[in-house]
Design goal:
Length: 394
């Protein structure tokens, strides 16, 4: 009955278009009960059978639906070096330095544990992704050659694929939990750095105490940089995996309909606009000159003139209002370093301002703003009394 209705639909459509000046035979293939040959054929006006070579999509063996390659995970192994041992000086400052050194050792051990957790999650994500794509490939290989509607074997493979994608989603949740833990370690490292610098002002120190404090300060600084890199790479992994899982869920929905019909349909239309749209702007280099700000008023100015500047709520509110009016807006994020002081001081300020901009960029990413919408750059300003980060609408 369904086949008869299908034939009736084709006949009615042809009758409705009979007034057209071109032959319908050139558009519609003949509907016969003959088994299809290796090459597809179409009947021409002269009655000759013209073979049509298989398309590129028909010739390829790769899966069609849900076959997007999984995003690459970071590969950095964040293992901090051992802490330089100190010597006992018998002074109060020396005792304070030993306590701070012990805190650094415990913090670095915590980083090692967090790094071990990260590498374990990455390994699990790779295995879950392999299982997911194996199931998808099995489904598509049958869809491409043709199968019965609602094939139980393919339904079982779809359930396996859904389970694999859910496992990847749980891996993303573990990454989020790890990111929160690393953020706590980052706060500890900033406090340890400030405490170490404050120890220089304690009275009763000998030269050996200040030498050990200098070594300790350098090692704490390197630890701060290591934690920042860990947070940045972890944030990028989370963003890529989250977008990947969301896209593949849409593809699984389309794939379930293909299994129901017994024929391949293609990727989800929900991902079509995102996949074909040109990027709004490429992410700029941190070392490149800043985008021209002449005649432009910054949307947000964040002054890092004190520790623990609370800017997230104001930043979110401002960006949210812009996106409500202009959903496809892009942004320029500029690290502004103070140009006051000696050349060494300007260099230190420039490095700090870039780290501040990276922190703001990470906040924007965590708020859900795609990183390809943000162009990052840096400048030095003699008018700035403290390091600042400016956000412009593009």
């Amino acid at each position: 009955m369904a086949r008869a209705l299908s034939h009736l639909t084709v006949i009615c459509s042809a009758a409705a278009l009979s007034a057209c000046s071109f032959s319908m035979d050139s558009l519609w293939p003949s509907l016969t009960g003959d088994s299809p040959s290796a090459a597809t054929t179409v009947a021409s006006k002269a009655g000759k059978v013209i073979p049509i070579a298989p398309s590129q999509g028909e010739r390829r063996n790769q899966p069609v639906v849900g076959a997007t390659a999984p995003p690459a995970l970071g590969t950095t192994n964040f293992v901090p070096p051992t802490v330089t041992p100190g010597q006992t000086t018998g002074t109060f400052v020396g005792q304070k330095t030993n306590l701070l050194r012990g805190e650094l050792q415990r913090m670095r051990q915590q980083i090692r544990q967090q790094n071990s957790t990260l590498q374990g999650i990455r390994g699990e994500t790779g295995r879950h992704s392999l299982a997911y794509h194996s199931a998808i490939a099995s489904i598509n290989s049958r869809l491409q050659v043709g199968t019965t509607p609602g094939n139980p074997y393919m339904v079982n493979q779809w359930n396996i694929a859904q389970s694999g994608l859910s496992s990847i989603d749980r891996d993303v949740s573990q990454m989020n939990s790890l990111a929160n833990a690393v953020a706590g370690t980052s706060t500890m490292s900033a406090y340890l750095l400030e405490t170490t610098r404050a120890a220089y002002g304690l009275s009763g120190a000998v030269e050996a105490d200040h030498r050990q404090l200098a070594i300790l300060e350098d090692e704490v600084n390197r630890t701060v940089v290591l934690i920042d890199r860990l947070l940045n790479e972890l944030s990028e992994d989370i963003n890529r995996q989250t977008a990947y899982v969301a896209a593949e869920r849409s593809n699984l929905t389309a794939l379930s309909l293909a299994i129901k019909n017994g024929e391949s349909l293609g990727n989800s239309l929900a991902n079509r606009a995102y996949a074909t749209a040109a990027p709004i702007a490429a992410t700029g280099s941190r070392n490149s000159s800043a985008a021209s700000t002449a005649g432009r008023r910054p949307l947000v100015v964040i002054r890092f003139d004190r520790p623990n500047v609370s800017y997230q709520q104001a930043l979110y509110t401002a960006v949210n209002r812009v996106l409500q009016r202009r959903p496809q807006a892009g942004f320029d994020l500029i690290a502004v370093a103070t140009g006051q002081g000696s050349a060494a001081q300007v260099t230190v300020a420039s490095n700090k301002s870039k780290r501040n901009a990276e922190t703001v960029l990470r906040s924007l990413s965590e708020m859900g703003l795609p990183l390809q919408r943000v162009r990052l750059s840096a400048i030095t300003s003699a008018d700035a009394k403290s390091n600042e980060v400016h956000l412009y609408v593009r």
